[in-house]
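Hi team, as promised in this morning's meeting, here are the two structures we talked about. I've kept the exact order from the run log so nobody has to guess. The first one is mostly here for context; it's the second one we should focus on when we meet again. Sequence first, then the predicted structure tokens.
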Amino acid sequence: MANKLINIISNSNFESRKTTKRLIQKLKQHNYNPTTTLSPRAALTITVGGDGAFIKAVNRTKFSDTPIVGINTGHLGFFQEISPEQLDAFIDAYDNNHYRIERLPILGAEVYTNQKNFFLYAVNEVVLKAQNSKVIHMNIFIDRNHLEKFSGDGILVATPAGSTGYNMSLGGGIVHPGVEAMSVTPMAGISSHSYRSLRSSLVIPGNHVVSLVPERRYANSNLILVDGREHTYNQLKRVNIRFADRHLNRLVIDSNYWENIKSKFL
């Protein structure tokens, strides 16, 4: 018997709550068992909101293998491809297996401090910068090969999915999700007689490791952003960023990537 249990994670605003209520009614009409209490046994997780809701849902499910799909009640909604007006078409497509699973790579950030190490996952990007909007100086290594001593606002490392977000706003290029590569993008790098920093993104193959090593003076005044969530650490030594050994399984209903790019950004 097919698994009819479906998780629903919704934003709390009026439009999201209204859409969630309609969605639950329609799923029940199709003999599904929707739940707003997160279950690891569900066959599908549906998020209702904007891209922020999608990211929060991925974190709430702890990056599980359960496929996830988004209904957009926000503004941009690059992850959330289904509109509230398309609920019937979405359920019909899901009923008839007219969908595909897109496996999106996830970043794993290993944070090393003098006392202990931490591991963080990111769908979109990891950023290392200084606190209080100060300039940060750090060394950047690719697989232990020294690339540069960077000076500027910070460094962003993005997945292909994340390349259309913060990365793009910094002037970084869009990377197609079929290309398993990381974008390493400088944030306001300083180029002067005293400092030399790359001013454009680097696209790194997915089997490489990007190491960010801040100078000692930033050991206790660092700020690490993981999909927008802020983390600070005492006695920070370095951050190693690579693709994790897991993927995000995003359910896609008849989506054209290039049309999505055009409709969202052009």
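And here is the second protein, the one for discussion:
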Amino acid sequence: MSYNEKILDHYENPRNVGSLDKNDPNVGTGLVGAPSCGDVMKLQIKVNDKGVIEDAKFKTFGCGSAIASSSLLTEMIKGKAIEDVTQIKNTQIVEELSLPPVKIHCSVLAEDAIKAAIHDYQMERIRHLLNRKQHANLEKLEEAIGIRVLIKQKGCSGLKYDIEYAYDIRPLESIIEESCSDGQKVKVLIDPKSVMFILGSEMDYVEEKFSSGFVFKNPNEKGKCGCGESFHV
């Protein structure tokens, strides 16, 4: 199969090949594969305190189209906020590289890799926060097993997110266990009365210059109060 000039350029002169420190809490790693052709892609991102991807590296075992898709993806995501990067679709890579139909799966692999890397980064941030909390409270005999998410009735709009460190599992709680790139697990426990208010939500821990905390993207929210501290559904 003959490749066009843009694919050949990224294949012969791939951008951002390499690895980032997987032990850095600001680094997320996505490792995905395509069983149909044997292609394997590892994508790593480094996110700054503003939620912007400041660096990206990849290693891909596969055909020219897979390597070109990986290389192009790293260029597309560097300097962009995570929120924007999550909107990237494989069709954009197909269009940029003019991939033939038989190679579209290479672009799907790239889209899967960035989703996996972002997911891993978010889990690493939560685990890092838990570890930091434990080290700051060494006088406590018990260790936090995860974080608990609750929705409490308070605030101007009636409902407010509340996050606490969980030292046990309560009856009827929903448990979400996610794996980080180093194999460790992070538990997110959801209070049974709160589940209906946060179905389909995304949660991330964000550190800014003057503040830090958990941020929710909740499709169930109908509006917020003026200060943004509470919401209604």
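Starting points for discussion:
DSSP finds six helices and eleven strands in the chain.
The longest helix spans residues 104-136.
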